[in-house]
Design brief:
This protein has 470 residues and is of the alpha/beta class. The chain is built from 19 helices and 20 strands. The strands form 4 sheets. It has a 7-stranded parallel β-sheet with strand order 3-4-2-5-6-1-7, sandwiched between helices. Strands 10-11-9-12-13-8-14 form a 7-stranded parallel β-sheet, sandwiched between helices. A 4-stranded antiparallel β-sheet has the order 16-17-15-20. Helix 4 (53-64) crosses helix 5. The chain is elongated. The N and C termini lie far apart (66 Å). Bound molecules: adenosine monophosphate (AMP). Residues 23, 26-27, 30, 49-55, 90, 305, 307, 333-334 line the site of adenosine monophosphate.
Length: 470
């Protein structure tokens, strides 16, 4: 069988499995890396998730190692449990006709079950560095026959502090071997790793316009912390996306999960503190469309390979470009279009410019979608004093009192201090008008201005306060 896959040297049995998986032609990273890899040339490749990198090193492994020995000949190190599972699953699919057996090894799940699988024999191990090291120390994993090592998402493994484990694992295998390193970024410590542990590696990079981000439209919405859930519900109600929502902390994931569940949205949450069994259930529900909305932290959602995600929402904007790219790489996969929306507070707007510069792509400003006519918001928009305050934290309020009421600036300030329980240092400039005045008050006291002051009368006149929001 001649196909575009066999054209680049992929063995026929692997190409046949790719055909079964619905793949039509190799991706750029596959075209660039497979012919070299099949000649056992070491390489370090800059490739993000979604570019087909697993298929690239997977075909190299399957094309270069024997399938009958059932002692580990190749090992793939990855940063997370989910990725270990995912890589092993993809390798198993690719090996449908070649018969290679691969198994995942990762922490947080019963070690006995994994040991049993190892004892049954395998050709490829896909594992996280900590658990793999553990298995070597327990002498249940023998790496003395390894001929191929893949370091996948090397940058993230180093960021997560796995360097000692990785070096330990490398010492447990023959130094005469084929090594391939894949990384979304080529930061200094990644280059160092490549330099220290590879023989004349070839550098491969897939140019920006070839990566999958191309199919992802990137937007940002200017919204303060207090109105993020309002904005999110509008998006969920109107666009009905299959979405991953990223939060910065586990706590925020839990809070949002609870809030949306209370409002009867069908959501599930995933983060590193949950037991592995629960995480696997959540992932499979999301994969099988039992839930359409997954709320996640970065670590938990890393490397997730789900093709039909239409939306990525950065509920909290990440402050580094790598995380941003990894998150939005969850959508726009396998030739489908995707949308990434980032919620950006006024203090975070500078990140938008920075990320645009670093990715060379535009992040378009958009508004929160309009509600359907006649429909009610599940969460009401509130005034976000953080968002409307100036650099000194001051917000402007219009009060229906002025010179005509016989007031001077000092009198008006006293009235506010007394009735709204605000300290004088928290009151800024006062512009006294004849019928109404503009007063600056610190954002922390915004609610007291609109709630407490309006319960008061001045010379029999009901006081009214309006927040100036422009
Ligand atoms: P990865 O970058 O390895 O996470 O792969 C991203 C997605 O693309 C996975 O769902 C792969 O199964 C899929 N994929 C990899 N190579 C190809 C290809 N040549 N054609 C179509 N889909 C592919």
């Amino acid at each position: 069988m001649i196909s575009k896959f066999t054209d680049i040297g992929i063995p026929e049995d692997v190409a046949k499995a790719m055909d079964d998986m619905g793949w039509e032609e190799p991706t750029p990273i596959q075209v660039n890396s497979v012919p070299l890899g099949l000649q056992n040339i070491d390489m370090f490749a800059q490739a993000q998730t979604g570019t087909g990198k697993t298929g690239a090193y997977g075909s190299i492994i399957l094309g270069t190692i024997d399938s009958k020995r059932k002692v580990p000949s190749a090992i793939v190190l990855v940063p997370t449990r989910e990725l270990a599972n995912q890589v092993s699953t993809e390798l198993t699919k690719l090996a449908k006709y070649s018969g290679h057996r691969s198994i995942p090894i990762y922490g947080g799940a019963s070690i006995e079950g994994q040991i049993k699988k190892l004892e049954q024999g395998c050709d490829i191990v896909a594992g996280t560095p900590g658990r793999v090291r553990d298995m070597i120390t327990r002498k249940v994993l023998n790496l003395s026959e390894i001929t191929t090592l893949v370091l996948d998402e090397a940058d993230r493994m180093l960021d997560m502090g796995f360097v000692d484990d990785i070096e330990f694992i490398m010492r447990a295998m023959p130094s005469e071997r084929h090594t391939m390193l894949f990384s979304a970024t080529m930061q200094e410590n990644v280059k160092q790793l490549a330099f220290d542990y590879m023989r004349n590696p070839k550098e491969i990079s897939v140019s920006q316009d070839e990566v999958v981000l191309d199919l992802t439209k990137q937007y940002y919405i200017s919204v303060g912390r207090r109105n993020k859930s309002w904005a999110l519900c509008r998006i969920l109600d109107l666009d009905k996306p299959k979405a991953i929502i990223f939060c910065q902390t586990k706590k925020m994931v839990d809070v949002l999960d609870e809030r949306l569940t209370d409002l009867k949205y069908k959501v599930e949450a995933i983060h590193g503190d949950m037991p592995q069994s629960k995480r696997e259930k959540v992932m499979s529900d999301f994969k099988n469309d039992k839930t359409d909305i997954l709320i996640a932290t970065d670590v938990a959602a890393r490397g997730l390979d789900i093709d039909d995600i239409t939306y990525v929402v950065n509920y909290d904007m990440p402050d580094d470009i790598d995380t941003y790219i990894h998150r939005i790489g969850r959508t726009g996969r396998a030739g489908r279009e995707g949308t990434a929306v980032s919620f950006v507070t006024s203090e975070e707007e500078h990140l938008v410019k920075e990320f645009e510069m670093r990715t060379g792509m535009e992040i378009v400003k958009r508004d929160v979608p309009d509600a359907e006519p006649g429909s009610k918001d599940t969460i009401r928009k509130v005034i976000d004093y953080d968002q409307i305050s100036d650099v000194f934290g001051m917000c402007k309020f219009e009060i229906n009192l002025g010179k005509k009421d016989g007031l001077k600036k000092v009198g008006l300030a006293d009235l506010i201090i007394k009735n709204a329980r605000i300290r004088d240092v928290s009151i800024g400039k006062i512009e006294l008008g004849s019928e109404s005045s503009i007063v600056e008050v610190h954002k922390d006291f915004g609610n007291r201005m609109t709630m407490d002051l309006t319960k008061t009368k001045y010379n029999g006149k009901q006081i009214r306060v309006r927040v100036i929001q422009d």
